[in-house]
Amino acid sequence: MDWARFAQELASMARDLLSQESVDATLERITDSATRLVEGCEAAGILVLHGKKVQTLAPTEELVVLSDQLQERLREGPCFDAAHTKDGERVFRIPDFALDQQKWPSFAPQAHELGVGSMMGFLLYTEDEDLGALNVYSRKRGAFTEASELAGWLLASHAAVAFSSARAHAQMENAVATRHMIGEAMGILMGSHNLTEEQAFDILRRYSQKNNIKLREVAAMICERGGLS
Question: What is the mean pLDDT of residues 41-70?
C-alpha cells in the first residue's frame, strides 16, 4: 500500500466532496473513490437502512444492489446487525463468503452465489431507526487486508462528514422551498377567498389532516390549480 499516494488522493477527495452540488453527486464521488483508494475493492455502494427497508445509493455495479436486496429480503446480514446492535461495530470484514457462513447462515451462501467473494462495511451514521453504511466488495476471496480496512475506515470517516453536511444542506434547501410554496399557496387562498393568513393556513392544515396528504403536497396542488377545487 502506497500510503503517501493514498494520503494525497484522500485529501483531494475530501476537498472535492465538500464542493459537490448535490447529495447524489457526493455519494457517487464517495463510492468511486472507494474503488480507487481501497486495495482489493471492485465495487462499492452506500446502503441506507430505514427500519427494515433497504435503499441502495450510488452503486458502482449491479452486484451492490443485488447484495443489498438480498439483505432486505432475508432480514439478515452485516448491516442489519450493525443497525440493531447497541454500540455495534463500525467496521466489519468478511474475508471469505464461501467459508464464513455461520454468522449469517442464509445471507452468506446466497451472497457467495451472487459472486461476492469478500466484503467490508463501514458505518457512516445511525439515527433512530436509520443506518447508513459504505460497503465495498470483491469477487475474490480474501481480497481485503488490514491495510484495506484502515484505508476504508479513513475514507468512510471523511465520507461520513461530507454525507452529513450534504444531507443537512439538502434538508435546509427543501425546508426553504417548502416554506416558499406554502406561503404562495396561502397567498392564493387569501386573495381568492378574502382570508387572513391564519385562516388560510388553517385551511391548508385541515385539508392536509383530513386527506392524509403532506402540507407541502397540498400547497403544491393549490399553486398548480389556483385553489383547492
Answer: 92
Q: H/E/C letters for each residue in the chain?
A: CCHHHHHHHHHHHHHHHCCCCCHHHHHHHHHHHHHHHCCCCCEEEEEEEECCEEEEECCCCHHHHHHHHHHHHHCCCHHHHHHHCCCCCCEEEECCCCCCCCCCCCHHHHHHHHCCCEEEEEEEEEECCEEEEEEEEECCCCCCCHHHHHHHHHHHHHHHHHHHHHHHHHHHHHHHHHHHHHHHHHHHHHHHHCCCHHHHHHHHHHHHHHHCCCHHHHHHHHHHHCCCC
pLDDT class of 85 with cuts at 50, 70, 90: low
Q: Where in the chain is the domain with CATH 1.10.10.10?
A: 172-225
Q: What is the mean pLDDT of the chain?
A: 84
- Give the CATH number of domain 172-225: 1.10.10.10
Q: Does 155 have pLDDT greater than 60? A: yes
For the domain with range 3-170, which CATH number is right: 3.30.450.40, 3.90.1310.10, 3.40.50.10210, 3.10.450.50? Answer: 3.30.450.40
- Bridge pairing between strands 130-138 and 118-127: antiparallel
Q: Who wins on pLDDT, 63 or 91?
A: 63
